[in-house]
Design brief:
The strands form 3 sheets. The protein has a 7-stranded parallel sheet, sandwiched between helices. It has a 3-stranded mixed sheet with strand order 7-9-11. With about 350 residues, the protein is of the alpha/beta class. It has a domain at about 5-200 and about 230-255 and about 300-320: 3-Layer(aba) Sandwich (Rossmann fold), CATH 3.40.50. Helix 2 (about 65-75) packs across helix 4 (about 100-120). It has helices at about 15-25, 65-75, 90-95, 100-120, 160-180, 200-210, 230-245, 260-275, 305-315, 320-335, 335-345, 350-355, and strands spanning about 5-10, 30-35, 55-60, 80-85, 130-135, 185-190, 190-195, 215-220, 225-230, 250-255, 260, 290. The two termini are about 30 Å apart. The structure holds nicotinamide-adenine-dinucleotide and thymidine-5'-diphosphate.
């Protein structure tokens, strides 16, 4: 088969990366995917079970901070596209241990940019038009009050070590466009949810705790607002930006689903009560909500204005929050073994079984 794109997907064993790889291999059989992942606690090779046999797919166990390996891979695989997901992604972990965030999110992105610059701009590049797509977050814009929305022109104002490291990487990516003419695009999206999300983030954590009768911790007053984006919508947006985005541009991607955390948690509990009945206690699951100490520097509200990507590329989200949550709850119910293996750590054995 004539291969149309040779994509280096970084962090493809994480939540969004897995959903992206699955979507691309299904919809674009003439795109080759090299999935490069360090397999940190958030990387789960089991999420791509069955995909190893696909001839258009290769897994590489590596760290994006390894400059020599990145250079070799660009040359060996004639990489013409990068979709850069790899990152440390959890705000709470960035508060207790920021060093890994600086290393992977900043140094790692810099290392990849250098490898791309060398392959595409310094060596005699013979392949098709290359593109470096950097996946980032709306958290770089800081926190909103009761009104307003983040636009692509909103100044950066990151508040956590996580968002500061992502903002820093966005600036580097943008600088490589202006300074070297590296063909880059940046996407800044809101909070994703859906299948394969690690159960430390709010939605899968609440699912897991509700199923096991544990308390459901709400930080502060629970009135913090996030704009929830179903992961499939996000992955489709990334494909559109990869195909049709303009070099040097940033695109905000949102779900048009602003919700307070308390409402999100209640919706999950009510959906579970409805689908599988009340737990043995006979009490609605939402009775397990507890209010706990707030996260330091907790951003009050995020909201994305996604009109630019709609105007420019014709993308808009398809999933309402209710539909997305229903799909998500159904997926977690059907994949309770997956959740259990992540919680007890046995998901890590899969790598040893496959690769020794
Ligand atoms: P995740 O934490 O689930 O997965 C991250 C993946 O990156 C893991 O597979 C991990 O093993 C890998 N990784 C970490 N360090 C690495 C390194 N040094 N070298 C190679 N691989 C490494 O993250 P996610 O939720 O899938 O997020 C993906 C991207 O999207 C991140 O860049 C994140 O900042 C961004 N983002 C996520 C959300 C969200 O709601 N999840 C929202 C906005 C933006
Ligand atoms: P999270 O899923 O960690 O994503 P982010 O911090 O990137 O937005 O958290 C989503 C929201 O839920 C955020 O306002 C923090 C809050 N939250 C809780 O109230 N309790 C929890 O146990 C967690 C993990 C998050």
């Amino acid at each position: 088969m004539d291969i149309k794109r040779r994509i280096l997907v970084t962090g493809g064993c994480g939540f969004i990366g897995v959903n992206f790889i699955r979507l691309v291999l299904q919809d674009y059989p003439d795109w080759r995917i090299i999935n490069l992942d360090k397999l940190t606690y958030a990387g789960n090779l089991q999420n791509l079970k069955g995909i190893e046999e696909n001839k258009q797919y290769r897994f590489v166990h590596a760290d994006i901070c390894d400059a020599e390996q990145m250079e070799q891979l660009f040359a060996a695989e004639q990489i013409d596209s990068v979709v850069h997901f790899a990152a440390e992604s959890h705000v709470d972990r960035s508060i207790t241990g920021p060093a890994e965030f600086i290393q992977t999110n900043i140094i790692g992105t810099f290392t990849l940019l250098e490898a791309a610059r060398k392959a595409w701009l310094e060596d005699s590049w013979q392949g098709s038009d290359p593109r470096f797509l950097h996946v980032s977050t709306d958290e770089v814009y800081g926190s909103l009050g009761a009104t307003g929305m983040f636009r692509e022109t909103t100044p950066f104002d990151p508040r956590s070590p996580y968002s500061a490291s992502k903002a820093s990487s966005d600036h580097l990516v943008s600088a490589y466009f202006h300074t070297y003419g590296l063909p880059v695009v940046i996407t800044n999206c809101s909070n994703n949810y859906g299948p394969y999300q690690f159960p430390e983030k709010l939605i899968p954590l609440v699912f897991h705790n509700s199923m096991t009768g544990k308390p459901l911790p709400i930080y502060g007053d629970g009135k913090y607002v996030r704009d929830w984006l179903y992961v499939k919508d996000h992955c489709e947006a990334i494909v559109e930006v990869l195909k049709k985005g303009k070099d040097g541009e940033s695109y905000n991607i949102g779900g048009n689903n602003e919700k307070q955390n308390l409402e999100v948690v209640t919706t999950i509990c009510d959906t579970l009560d409805e689908k599988i009945g009340l737990p043995a206690s006979g009490e609605p699951r939402k009775n397990n909500i507890i209010f706990v100490k707030d996260r330091p520097g907790h951003d009050r509200r995020y909201a994305i204005d996604a009109s630019f990507i709609k105007e420019q590329l014709g993308w808009e989200p398809k999933f309402s929050f209710d539909k997305g949550i229903e799909n998500t709850v159904e997926w977690y119910l059907a994949n309770q073994e997956w959740v259990a293996s992540v919680v007890d750590g046995s998901y890590r054995d899969y790598y040893k079984k496959m690769y020794g």
